[in-house]
Amino acid sequence: MPVQADASVWGALLGSCRTYDNFELAELVAEKLFKLDPQDVTSYVMMSHVYANAGRSEDVSKLRNLMRERELKKLPGHSVVEANCRLHRFLVDSKPRHSWPTV
């Protein structure tokens, strides 16, 4: 490769490995990402999904333990909706709130 790949290029490759179930390459790419940016939780979560899709629950557990050891936490997903000139933020696992019917 004429240009040295950075973490974003390796991350895109890991995402493709997940999409196309290329487990062997995903492990190599994840190792590279963990060295390049050990605090980026996205790489760990993506590799966890690769392991889960391959039915390797023990590896999922090991990876989650590694995340805990390194104090890495995935932020919950959210959506933002504008209604009546106000922004309303919803977390993925949000419980209904009193303001929801007006949104």
UniProtKB/TrEMBL annotation:
It comes from the Eukaryota. InterPro entries: E_motif (IPR046848), PPR_At4g14850-like_plant (IPR046960), TPR-like_helical_dom_sf (IPR011990). GO terms for molecular function: RNA binding. GO terms for biological process: RNA modification. Pfam families: E_motif. This is Pentatricopeptide repeat-containing protein. It comes from Linum tenue.
